[in-house]
């Protein structure tokens, strides 16, 4: 019988070595009756292997509750570089629907969301007996950290997020010892840079929302949303104008002219954003 046609017993297992891992990193794979290897998905592999120094979040699933495409893309890149699997929700509604089905290891919650405050979700996730291992708040607002910690969050991620080592450390410091990577952790001083397409998507969504100022609740949310974007890309002039709009809202003054000014600035930034 030729080697190509020879079949192996049903209960036979072999060790496959995965490219890029040390020689000791092997995983048993079952063989089909015809000798074909039953391969697991990459996600299965990542979730069953212990964390490594270069990928300290390997084995974790991170649910990111974030309305900004630009901020979500930064989180995706940070998780990718850290070894974690990411799931995303852009509102409280979608986050709660997700949590009824899946149980993530870490939940990162933006304070300002389109259908309510992330503070409420933080409080819900930390008050129950069966809670998520790590719950972190995130925001670009100066008072965001205080709100998150008072609601029960384990920690806080200040926006804008780009540092890989900062992201990893903020999660690892709240994990138990058996979830920590073995050996000396290799600190990465690299940063991630989200694609401009995600930024453009955020700006276009804001431009549409600014066309109608009749709904005060929606305008307050958009003020917070756009302010986060401006701070995230260090756009000082736009950030200053948004702060001025927020103050007009607090004082109960007319906002039409200021909204029109900001809308024009947003359109200018859309025009300057490269189309890829």
Count of structural domains:
3
Shape: globular
**What do the pLDDT scores average to?**
82
Helix and strand sequence: EEHEHEHEEEHEHEHHHHH
- CATH superfamily of the largest domain, please? Response regulator
Q: Give me the side-by-side strand order of the main sheet.
A: 4-3-5-8-9
Helix content: 40-55%
Spatial extent as radius of gyration = 23 Å
Largest sheet: 5 strands, parallel
Strand content: 5-15%
Q: At the third CATH level, what is the topology name of the largest domain?
A: Rossmann fold
Number of strands: 9
Walk me through the topology.
Blueprint: E1 13-17, E2 26-30, H1 42-48, E3 61-65, H2 69-82, E4 85-89, H3 92-99, E5 106-110, E6 112-113, E7 116-117, H4 118-127, E8 134-139, H5 144-151, E9 155-158, H6 164-172, H7 196-209, H8 216-232, H9 236-251, H10 256-272
Parallel strand pairs: 3-4, 3-5, 5-8, 8-9
Antiparallel strand pairs: 1-2, 6-7
Q: Could you please describe the fold and organization of this structure?
A:
It is a single chain. The chain contains ten helices and nine strands. It is an alpha/beta fold and 276 residues long. It has helices at 42-48, 69-82, 92-99, 118-127, 144-151, 164-172, 196-209, 216-232, 236-251, 256-272; strands at 13-17, 26-30, 61-65, 85-89, 106-110, 112-113, 116-117, 134-139, 155-158. The chain has three domains: 1-44, no CATH class; 61-179, Rossmann fold, CATH 3.40.50; 196-272. It starts with 12 loop residues before the first strand and ends with a helix. The strands form three sheets. It has a five-stranded parallel β-sheet with strand order 4-3-5-8-9, sandwiched between helices. The protein has a two-stranded antiparallel ribbon with strand order 1-2. The relative contact order is 0.10.
């Amino acid at each position: 019988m030729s080697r190509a046609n020879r079949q192996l017993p049903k209960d036979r297992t072999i060790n496959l070595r995965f490219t890029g891992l040390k020689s000791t990193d092997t995983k048993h794979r079952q063989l089909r009756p015809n000798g074909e290897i039953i391969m697991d998905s990459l996600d299965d592999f990542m979730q069953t292997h212990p964390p490594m120094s270069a990928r300290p979040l390997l084995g974790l699933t991170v649910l990111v509750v974030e309305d900004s495409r630009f901020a979500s893309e930064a989180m995706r890149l940070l998780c990718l570089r850290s070894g974690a699997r990411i799931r995303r929700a852009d509102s409280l509604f979608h986050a709660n629907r997700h949590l009824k089905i899946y149980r993530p290891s870490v939940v990162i919650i933006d304070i300002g969301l389109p259908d309510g405050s992330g503070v409420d979700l933080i409080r819900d996730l930390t008050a129950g007996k069966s809670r998520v291992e790590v719950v972190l708040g995130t925001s670009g607002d100066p008072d965001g950290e205080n709100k998150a910690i008072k609601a029960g969050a384990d920690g806080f991620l200040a926006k804008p997020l780009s540092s890989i080592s900062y992201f990893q450390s903020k999660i690892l410091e709240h994990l138990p010892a058996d979830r920590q990577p073995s050996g000396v952790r290799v600190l990465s001083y690299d940063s991630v840079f989200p694609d401009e397409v995600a930024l453009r998507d955020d700006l276009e969504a804001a431009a549409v929302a600014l066309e109608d100022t009749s709904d005060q609740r929606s305008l307050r949310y958009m003020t917070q949303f756009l302010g986060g974007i401006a701070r995230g890309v260090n756009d000082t002039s736009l950030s200053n104008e948004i702060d001025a709009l927020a103050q007009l809202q607090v004082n109960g003054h007319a906002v039409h002219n200021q909204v029109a000014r900001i809308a024009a600035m947003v359109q200018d930034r859309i025009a300057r954003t490269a189309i890829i």
